[in-house]
Amino acid sequence: MKRDTRFIRFGLVYFVMFTIFGVATPYLQILVRGLGYDPAQVGFLLGLFEVAGVTGPLLLGGLGDRMPSPRPALAALALVAVAAMIPLLLLPRFAFSALALCLVALGIRTLIPLADASAVTFSDRGTAGRGAAHYGRIRVFGSAGFIAATLTLQALPRFAHASPSSIALAFSLAALAFCLSLIILPVTGKSPRQGEPASRNSARRIDPLFLLGLCIIALGRMAMAPISSFLSLYVAEDLRWNAVGGLWALSACTEMPLMLLSVRIIRRTGPMAAIAISSAALVVRLAVYALVPSPAGVVSGQLLHSLSYGLFQPAAVTFVATRVPPERRVRGMAAFMSLGVGLPTFAGSSLGGLVLKAWGYRVLFASFVLFALASLLLYVLTRRRFSEGHAYSRPSG
Question: What is the pTM of this model?
Fold first, then answer.
């Protein structure tokens, strides 16, 4: 009973944390557009946002592995993001906007690897080191928080066309609420072997399968860039449909069942096969956006978020947790978020802005199918290596 209560407390912190992303994911692109930048500039700024999100986890990953509690770091990161909203609104010049967005990214993009590593460590206790497999049970609280935020903003009249200051206010309120929620975050302690110093070999040796897996993940996340960076603008500007918040809430609803079922799927297929399934779903999702330029097409595409993200995220976290020693877990999660997600999203967002400006939304979505296919093909060509490495990849606990 005591563990169940602590589990719920951990989940509630995730719930509040993802209200921040319930504002940022659908509306940050609209905020930047509202500052007066054209599509190419929006794409570059959002890509720079992702690059800055690469820096934070890589710089702070080692610190996170040594911290007894993630609370101070999580609170400080959220407050940095809130403070950065002030120059973003008051100094609408390209250089100042770029710097402010970098600070916002440094704050919120570093939250996830710190929180995810803590969630896996927390789940490790009492599960014989199988915390990564049970990560989805905590992460689903985050999806619920994302849905709550997006539906709340969707209920506000014409929030899809809100001023940058209104979006910044909603973001700041969510971040401050997260800081308050950290009061109830349970002490995670150390997972098996996490308290032990890394051996000389484990500290220096780079797992080639881990790098290969990051390449497969990176290609898939690059394919996601048009969705994360431009879908809200597509709905608001091209389709002229006031449903941005509702559509993102729909996608989050579809991801929740897959996160709960991900334990069984990943155990049966292995984490990299599950990631390949998400890449295949991305091929279909992007093709639907390109071939059916209507509200029905967008709704159909959002339903595929269940596989392209709902299955992907637990599978990717499991892959990292099973290829990285527990004493380096935060650094492993940081590498995943930075090199597997942040950097390819920057490249995809910057390239996507140029494609959008030159040829429009349909070509944008259609062209990025190639990256999803490349991710899928790379896995097919190397899947035997992941199968042969399965015994090595068991959780170290």
Answer: 0.75
CA dihedral 158, 160, 166, 167 (to 10 degrees): 160
| CA proximity to 115, closest of 16, 192, 42 | 16
What is the three-state SS of the chain?
CHHHHHHHHHHHHHHHHHHHHHHHHHHHHHHHHHCCCCHHHHHHHHHHHHHHHHHHHHHHHHHHHHCCCCHHHHHHHHHHHHHHHHHHHHCCCHHHHHHHHHHHHHHHHHHHHHHHHHHHHHHHCCCCCCHHHHHHHHHHHHHHHHHHHHHHHHHCCCHHHCCHHHHHHHHHHHHHHHHHHHHHCCCCCCCCCCCCCCCHHHHHCCCHHHHHHHHHHHHHHHHHHHHHHHHHHHHHHHCCCCCHHHHHHHHHHHHHHHHHHHHHHHHHHCHHHHHHHHHHHHHHHHHHHHHCCCHHHHHHHHHCHHHHHHHHHHHHHHHHHHHCCHHHHHHHHHHHHHHHHHHHHHHHHHHHHHHHHHHCHHHHHHHCHHHHHHHHHHHHHHHHHHHHCCCCCCCCC
- The pLDDT > 90 percentage for the chain reads 47
Single-letter amino acid, residue 358: A
Confidence bin at 64 (pLDDT 50/70/90): low
Q: 125 phi and psi, to 5 degrees?
A: -70, 115
Q: Which amino acid is at 260?
A: L
Asked if 317 and 276 count as a contact pair (C-beta separation under 8 A), the reply is no
2-34 vs 135-155: helix crossing angle, rounded to 10: 40
As given in the structure block, the two tokens for residue 52 are 């800055």
Phi/psi for 249 (5° steps) reads -65, -40
Mean pLDDT in residue range 131-148: 80
- How far apart, in whole angstroms, are the C-alpha atoms of residue 178 and residue 173? 9
Within 13 Å and on the Cβ side, how many CA atoms surround 110?
30
CA dihedral 338, 340, 345, 347 (to 10 degrees): 100
What is the phi-psi region of residue 68: left when phi exceeds 0, alpha when psi lies from -120 to 50, beta otherwise?
A: alpha
Query: Is residue 260 within 8 Å of 315, Cβ to Cβ?
Result: no
Core vs surface per residue 279-297: b (16+ CB within 10 A) or e: bbbbbebbbbbbeebeeeb
Indicate the range of 157-166, 227-236, 276-285 predicted with least confidence.
157-166
Q: In sequence order, what are the residues at sequence separation of 6 or more whose Cβ sits closer than 8 angstroms to the Cβ of residue 158? A: 242
